[in-house]
Amino acid sequence: MRLACPKLLLCLALGLGLTSCGGEAPEVLALSWRLEMRPQKGGYYESLSIFANVHDFDGPEDIESLSLSQDASGLAWVLDGGNWSVLKEGDDTWIGGADLAMADRSALPRGVYRLVATDLSGQRAERSFTLDCEAPRKAPPSVTASGKLAEVDSVWPETALLAYDAAGILLQAKPIGRGSNDLEGLLSGALAGKTASVAVYGYDPQTHCGAFSWKTKR
């Protein structure tokens, strides 16, 4: 699954409060992860995005939490109904989070990461992946918006336009090409009028690496 797709970038937060009524353990059917570069003053920092296709016999509301850990370094995050994001595609449910970074925004440790899904009855399922890629070597993408045009500079195989409202909330994401683009044509309907700033996101599916540009006001 490509995480740069509009559906995933606009995924909804889901709060869970139902009681488990069965004893079936969950299954982590698949993982989709990437190492991303995000802009900060003076440069960029590394973060992880991780989403799991989780199946539970008692329904997705039976999943209580996801934990992601890197045992060699002791690094760990816990995602639950209060801070995870959820995407539903047909019968599949993808749960996860983005911008998982070191507290000091230093480079993330390489090695094996474990993701554990736990349901409300305490049963668990586990999948792992290895983060062994180097920081993205490609230059981060950039965008400038002037009137009805968006000028995009990107060397990434896939590039998406990200539209934000005045509060910085992501409204929509659309594939976008290099060079000049019709900004008004890309932004959808009523959301176009709410878009206060835009950015672009570049992704390379071969390396699991991506990079965000700085936001620019319309």
Features:
single chain, 2 domains, 4-stranded antiparallel sheet, 9-stranded mixed sheet, 218 residues, 16 strands, 3 helices, Immunoglobulin-like, 6% helix, mainly beta
Please give a structural write-up.
This protein is mainly β. It folds into 2 domains: 6-131, Immunoglobulin-like (Sandwich), CATH 2.60.40; 142-217. The protein has 3 helices and 16 strands. The protein has helices at residues 6-9, 183-186, 189-194, and strands spanning 27-40, 43-55, 63-70, 75-80, 85-89, 92-100, 111-119, 124-131, 142-146, 149-153, 158-164, 170-175, 179-182, 197-204, 209-212, 216-217. Strands 1, 2, 5, 6, 11, 12, 14, 15 and 16 form a 9-stranded mixed β-sheet that branches. Strands 4-3-7-8 form a 4-stranded antiparallel β-sheet, with no helix packed on it. A 3-stranded antiparallel β-sheet has the order 9-10-13. The protein is globular. Mean pLDDT is 86; it is low at 1-21.
Give a concise summary.
This protein is mainly beta and 218 residues long. It has helices spanning 6-9, 183-186, 189-194, and strands at residues 27-40, 43-55, 63-70, 75-80, 85-89, 92-100, 111-119, 124-131, 142-146, 149-153, 158-164, 170-175, 179-182, 197-204, 209-212, 216-217. The protein folds into 2 domains: 6-131, Immunoglobulin-like, CATH 2.60.40; 142-217.
